[in-house]
Amino acid sequence: NHNHNHNHHFRHADSNASPPSSAVAKISHLKAVVLGDAPASEEDDVVLPSHDFSRQALVPSQQKYLEMYKASIENPAGFWSGIASSEFYWKQRWGDQVYSENLDVRRGNIKIEWFKGGITNVCHNCLDRNIDAGLADKIALYWESNEPGFDATLTYSQLLQRVCQLANYLKSVGVRKGDAVVVYLPMLMELPITMLACARIGAVHSVVFAGFSSESLAQRIVDCKPKVVITCNAVKRGPKTVFLKDIVDAALIDSANKGISVDVCLTYENQLALKREKTKWKEGRDIWWEDVVPKYPTSCDVEWVDAEDPLFLLYTSGSTGKPKGVLHTTGGYMVYTATTFKYAFDYKDSDVYWCTADCGWITGHSYVTYGPMLNGATVLLYEGAPSYPDPGRCWDIVDKYKVTIFYTAPTLVRSLMRDGDKYVTRYSRKSLRVLGSVGEPINPSAWRWFFNVVGGSRCPISDTWWQTETGGFMITPLPGAWPQKPGSATFPFFGVQPVIVDEKGVELDGECSGYLCVKSSWPGAFRTLYGDHERYETTYFKPFPGYYFTGDGCSRDKDGYHWLTGRVDDVINVSGHRIGTAEVESALVSHPQCAEAAVVGVEHQVKGQGIYAFVTPVEGISYSEELRKSLILTVRTQIGAFAAPDKIHWAPALPKTRSGKIMRRILRKIAARQLDELGDTSTLADPGVVDQLIKLADT
Ligand code: PRX
């Protein structure tokens, strides 16, 4: 683990300990450097915000944060309704209750509602409202192609026109409020356009990251039964061309075989990657975007929806094989993503914002499309690979567009750090003002490199901890308010009450380490798992009754700072992508020569975690290089390239208890080569299995 490993130190909280006072950092004894004064060295415990930065910040001090935090916890209804009514357009105000919730399984079904009865529309709030406020000619989107030299822009009013044309087209093919639309697009402007068009007409988008395989795509199509699938013919990623339409074709055959056929496949011709003549086509089902969408009117009435009507579904991995359809609704998600974006990045109207995440993940939903657009921000979309044509590309883009806020994942930071400072320092980067990190813990050395080299020791880093399920930031620094500790996500956002519990679910106080849970709801929380409310309750609310369980481990230091230590369930974060070990296992065992597989996460220098698979071949098959390759190919085709195991460890047998349960604890230690920490192996059915595995470790 890259983080400070605080000793397990369980101290129980008094029953009504209030987070605001215990969250006050008493940091005067720590060694500190001030933002902009000098590089942060390994001896510096904290980086203090500079006077200049704080003076212009939305939240200029710890005091101010604490005041606002306290207000948000003591009176969530007042805090959030104040923001909701002053900063958004509502066709009709919500009912008497700002929110209602039950997070305690012992008191009946889990339910979270915010602004119920309020009538609004997220697309209207992103576009029409900002245009009415004078942003018609402000750049909404900058688009930078994979190939240097190709780019495009859309102003807010142009974006609205494009969105309306697509919305009108979708209506013309029968998409109505509540219908699902599956989107399998790379980072083209058409991706946020599609999301906003769906939101405009009350359709529920389900964006599938365009790195998922046809089988994964089919699985999602079968689950949510879309009226339309939207894709493009191909995309360039670095030097490679990826034929997305072929993947969609295969997925549509697959899903039709499972009883779900899709009538319309709207396909954008991405001319820089592939001409339409070379695209495989199914007449009647497939339609070129460019042939139909531009013919529709550039205005389209908004479908006004209830705050609790669904906005989108996004599938994510859990500890079992089947991906979960995380459902977010309209009002709370809108208010929460906009507010978190504004404060965590100290957003100013003049900012140019770039988030390197793909819209296929939650980060792209909340912090490429919705959060920034709701704030009327100028957003940069980059289509390509971050190190193409060379590792300086990101900083080339930063200089070209004068990017002021740059938000990325630790895995990219680490890989660029490896490539060397020269790729960074040959660019000016002086436009940068705030940096952000997301997806996995950022180790202190990567934090310092990001801070010192990329940000020139001038820019605070918002290390934002959150999840697909949470909709928006949960624990994050507010730049200007907090002294930062490299590697710590610091303190909760307004309205969020994180608690650390022991294995019995008892809240711990002070310096402690345990399971991260959240008490009470926040507006951006997911409301259910699509079609499976029971799994929602079982996975998230039953492990520690009374709380939302995050699946993450966390420690709190004596100053109240939070340190995320990674997942405690069978989920791993590989290059910031979330993968269930069970998904990889089920892909592996589908291989005819694989009898059994057990997958664990292992520390990886660049990816954070790598995928380590123990594989038992079927009787009579011996392990070979050919088999290794074919196993990896199976995972790539069933899930996607990003889920390919980094290591296959041949296992003539797996360590199991007498009742047949695989002992993953032991496998994790073998994978990490921590052979002196194997612990008690006497309960294994056959302890000899362990020695056998160790012998085969480096073959
Ligand atoms: O383990 C945590 C890690 O990513 C998980 C959520 O993954 P996903 O739903 O795909 O969302 C990723 C983008 C929000 C969490 O359970 N994680 C995310 N951000 C951080 C993090 N771990 C440590 N520090 C973070 N800043």
Automatic annotation (TrEMBL):
Gene3D superfamilies: 3.30.300.30, N-terminal domain of ligase-like. CDD domains: ACS. Keywords: ATP-binding, Ligase, Nucleotide-binding. PROSITE patterns: AMP_BINDING. GO terms for molecular function: acetate-CoA ligase activity; AMP binding; ATP binding. It is an enzyme of class 6 (ligase). Residues 136-521 form the AMP-dependent synthetase/ligase domain. Pfam families: ACAS_N (PF16177), AMP-binding (PF00501), AMP-binding_C (PF13193). Residues 65-126 form the Acetyl-coenzyme A synthetase N-terminal domain. One of its GO terms (biological process) is acetyl-CoA biosynthetic process from acetate. Residues 583-661 form the AMP-binding enzyme C-terminal domain. Its EC number is 6.2.1.1. It catalyses: acetate + ATP + CoA = acetyl-CoA + AMP + diphosphate. It comes from the Eukaryota. Belongs to the ATP-dependent AMP-binding enzyme family. This is Acetyl-coenzyme A synthetase. It comes from Gossypium tomentosum. The lineage of its organism: Eukaryota, Viridiplantae, Streptophyta, Embryophyta, Tracheophyta.
